[in-house]
Amino acid sequence: MRNWLRLTLLVVTVIPAALAQESPRMKSVEPGNGKVGDELTVSGENLDSKFVKEVYLTDGKNDIKVEVTQQTAEAIKLKIPAKAKPGRYSLMVLTAEKVPKYIEQPVKCTVEQ
User: Fold this and answer.
1) Strand partners, 95
2) How far apart are the first and last CA of the chain?
3) Which tops the pLDDT comparison, 8 or 52?
4) Radius of gyration (Cα) for the chain, nearest Å?
5) How would you label 38-74 residue by residue, b for 16+ Cβ within 10 Å and e otherwise?
6) Sequential DSSP letters for 8-71
7) Does residue 52 contact residue 11 with C-beta atoms inside 8 Å?
8) How does pLDDT run across 54-66, given as a tens digit for each residue?
9) Residue 29 to residue 108: CA distance in whole angstroms
């Protein structure tokens, strides 16, 4: 019984940590603001096409797909789309998993007029 409990605790402890490491994570965006057509660079981890299929700007009600111009594991370069109205947006990714999911990132940018 004791060994079974140890194994269970090991599995419960290790699996969530491993999954968390495989998720895309945006840490910063430079510059933090721009106009339609401007290019922004997002830095983070697991940002390559193996993990991130699409990137969006979201205000919580409207999601606007952005054009990705360059993508590596540590950075994504994107252009602010013409559909983006002035305001503050969060960045959101659509994962490239078998069952894709949208994950809003803790990174924000401002679209200027």
Assistant:
1) 52
2) 66
3) 52
4) 17
5) eebebebbbbeeebbeebbbbeeeebbebebeebeee
6) HHHHHHHHHHHHHHTS-EEEEEESSEE-TT-EEEEEEES-STTTEEEEEEE-SS-EEE-EEEEE
7) no
8) 999 999 999 999 9
9) 7
For the cut 50, the answer to whether the pLDDT of residue 86 exceeds it is yes
Residue 18 CA to residue 79 CA, distance in Å, equals: 32
Domains defined along the chain, listed by start: 24-111 (2.60.40.10)
Asked if residue 31 has a cis previous peptide bond (ω within 30° of 0), the answer is yes
Question: Cα 53 vs. chain centroid, distance in angstroms?
Answer: 10
Question: 99: part of which helix (H) or strand (E)?
Answer: none
CA-to-CA distance for 84 and 41, rounded, in angstroms?
17
